[in-house]
Amino acid sequence: MASVDEPVNRPDGRSARWANHREQRREELISAVIEAIRELGPEPGVDAVAAHAGVSKPVLYRYFTDKPGLWEAVARRAASDVVAAIVPAVAAVVGEDREVVLAVVDAYLAYIENDPQLYRFVVHQRGIARERDVVADAIDSVASALARLFGDRLRAMGLDSGPALPWAYGVVGYVQTVGDWWLRHQQPISREALAEYLTTLLWGGITGIRAAADIPGGLAATYE
Q1: HSE, side-chain direction, 13 A CA sphere, residue 94
Q2: Checking phi first, is residue 9 left (phi over 0); if not, alpha (psi -120 to 50) or beta?
């Protein structure tokens, strides 16, 4: 027990309030920069972004150090929004597995359709220097959720669940690549039609799982 003369370590309330204020201001600036990107396009200059956000460039750098730091913070917010859009869409589906696949595909296409400038900024921005790839982080999150779905289906059929993760990454890459084509070509077909097209091809592969169980040395070979 501390004596009356012994100093007691207590958190500095002012420091905590300042840290909270700084984080809140940082998040507000990220939101303002995202709005600027939506208006100015996916390759804006920092001066233009600062002016659009109603602050000076030194103010931005006070919170983000430099241009790569600012771009990375924006990209991380956008990537987390992609995951936030897809995961609830999957969780809300009650029905056949095909409906889950369709929900994943449509949620991703809806996100990039509704926010094309920000999507292009995250995927194609060359000025982001980062310790981790924010696009890869988002892909990891979505693929992990899909892998659980595939793994559960495989195990329910008494099959080896080993392919679940590589298949999940393949699906994510497939949908991302087609989605990129779709935006670059000014959405030549409707989102609903594209989601159905992609799901039909994916579902053809998924329903082939049962047939693969009958192939000697196939999916059932290593499952105990």
Answers
A1: 0
A2: beta
C-beta separation of 198 from 175 below 8 A? yes
Residue 216 to residue 99: CA distance in whole angstroms: 31
Domain ranges of the chain: 18-64, 79-212
- Is domain 18-64 given the CATH code 1.10.10 in the classification? yes
List the structure tokens of 123.
Answer: 């995927």
How far is Cα 138 from Cα 118, in angstroms, rounded to an integer? Answer: 14
User: How far apart, in whole angstroms, are the C-alpha atoms of residue 186 and residue 202?
Assistant: 24
* pLDDT tens digits, one per residue of 138-185: 788 778 877 887 788 778 777 788 888 998 898 889 999 999 999 999
User: Taking the CA atoms of the chain, what radius of gyration do you get in angstroms?
Assistant: 23
How many Å apart are CA 42 and CA 2, to the nearest integer?
58
Neighbours of 173 (CB within 10 A): 12
Q: Which of 186, 179, 187 is nearest to 139 (CA)?
A: 179
In this structure, which topology does domain 79-212 adopt according to CATH?
Tetracycline Repressor; domain 2 (1.10.357)
Task: Tell me how far apart the 2 most distant CA atoms of the chain are, in Å.
Answer: 79
Is 101 in contact with 199 (CB distance < 8 Å)?
A: yes
Placement of tokens 């940082």 in the chain: 26
Q: Please identify which residue in the block is written with the tokens 């982001």.
A: 128
| This prediction's pTM | 0.73
